[in-house]
Design goal:
about 325 residues; alpha/beta; globular; about 25% strand; eight-stranded mixed beta sheet
Length: about 325
């Protein structure tokens, strides 16, 4: 390649980068100053390249004036530690029964391992991230939940669902210019989580709660502009496994109609998106975490790459990944 060709190629690359930045400008203007809740999971959590790319994305959001709040689970890491400790897991209806012994491991891995590693990755770019769990400052409150197998209720042990959020601790961290990184364990409260939940007494137990649904509850409590859930597929398919049926955007009512017939693995994620929209979050997204920087592509490009859920009053085709 001669000098003139190299200079032409370099100029073309620079112009392409400039065009990308300009395309991102209206989205940066729209979302600067807002809070985004990002649920971190899947391959993005275990692949080293993807882990580092995710941390870069979070720092980028921070520096363009968006307030990212990261929520994480840690299924693969929990499975690994339980295996190393020789703690067997019982499954009912495809869900793990969490014994007190297993809960000690869940708590240790989520808060002491996965959360600390993510905080470290983000903080390799500067003193940004602060780790916390659903126990800190009464952030999350949960009640035990079971499942139904063959028409009968099944006890899953120390497994819960979030019924209350006190976002004051997160707001304090955001106001200090930091990035909250939240592990999804929560104190159990007495009762059913109904009226008076804010003042309900804890039982002294800690519950393992689903990170997708916890992220949705946090997004609603924070008045977030977006909930973004990283997963290991390109998005929601109208006719799985037909890859050509990928849905770019749909309304809450359309998702509500589809939900009972979705693949079991997608139901918690799409239910979380629906809950977030129903409770006032402006947009909810499912994004392929196997692609580096997928979250930025979904947020700051017109076409986007995943699936977004919008309120019923918004016509998806008119907003084009707004």
């Amino acid at each position: 390649m001669n000098t003139q060709t190299r200079e032409t190629t370099s100029m073309t690359d620079a112009q392409d980068k400039a065009a990308t930045l300009i395309e991102a400008l209206p989205w940066i203007q729209r979302f600067a100053g807002t809070t985004m809740v990002i649920k971190y999971g899947g391959n993005a959590m275990v692949n080293e390249e993807l882990r580092r790319a995710f941390a870069e994305d979070i720092v980028f959001l921070h520096h363009v004036g968006i307030h990212p709040v990261v929520v994480h689970g840690g299924g693969p890491q929990i499975n690994s530690m339980l295996g190393r400790l020789g703690i067997e897991s019982e499954f009912k209806g495809g869900l793990r029964v969490t014994t007190p012994e297993a809960m000690d491991v869940v708590r240790m891995v989520l808060t002491g391992q996965v959360g600390r590693e993510l905080v470290g990755l983000i903080n390799s770019h500067g003193p940004y991230a602060v780790g916390m769990s659903g126990e800190d400052g009464g952030l999350l409150r949960a009640v035990r939940t079971g499942t139904v197998v063959d028409g009968e209720e099944v006890d899953l042990g120390l497994v819960g669902e979030v019924v209350g959020v006190n976002p004051a601790g997160i707001v304090d961290i955001l106001d200090a210019g930091r990035i909250p990184v939240i592990s999804t364990v929560a104190p159990e409260i007495a009762g059913d989580g109904g009226a008076g939940t804010q003042r309900a007494q804890t039982t002294g137990q800690v519950l393992n709660v689903n990170a997708d649904t916890a992220a949705a509850a946090l997004a609603a409590a924070l008045g977030a502009s977006k909930l973004v859930i990283l997963t290991d597929v390109e998005g929601l398919y109208a006719n799985w496994p037909d890859k050509s049926s990928l849905i770019s955007s749909l309304t809450a009512s359309e998702l509500r109609d589809m939900l009972p017939n979705l693949e079991s693995g997608m139901i918690p994620k799409m239910a979380a998106c629906l809950k977030a929209i129903d409770e006032g979050v402006e947009r909810a997204h499912i994004v392929d975490g196997r692609l580096p920087h997928s979250m930025l592509l979904e947020t700051f490009t017109t076409a986007g790459i995943g699936t977004q859920v919008v309120p019923d009053e918004v016509v998806p085709d008119e907003e084009a990944k707004a």
